[in-house]
Amino acid sequence: MTGAPETIDLRPQAALVARLAELAEAWRAPEAWRGDTRAGGVELPAAVAGQVAVNELVLHGWDLARATGRPYAPDPAALDVAHALVSGTPDGPEREGMFGPSLPVPPDAPLLDRVAALSGRDPGWSPPG
Asked: Is the pTM of this model over 0.85?
């Protein structure tokens, strides 16, 4: 295989924890939240990029937990940030590439279920078997 790494990190959890610590440290700096930045070829305010990063962690944490059958309880403040982002992004062309179409969920559903549904995920999904 061309371009394959010579070694593979057999401890993905340790690598993930290290990367998440780096991400958290970078966002602790007040200047990280000021001005504009670029992410994925898109220029956006740094504060919005921070919200997107939090949302990514919440939603993909949900994805991973569901796929592996593990419990998941994100930080309540992070969940609030994710909810604000997904609820503020209406269905339509501006959602494409960010989220799927919103799915219906009762208004009194747990906030994590509402965030999942607003991002296009089925809160009741679990892996087969």
From this structure: no
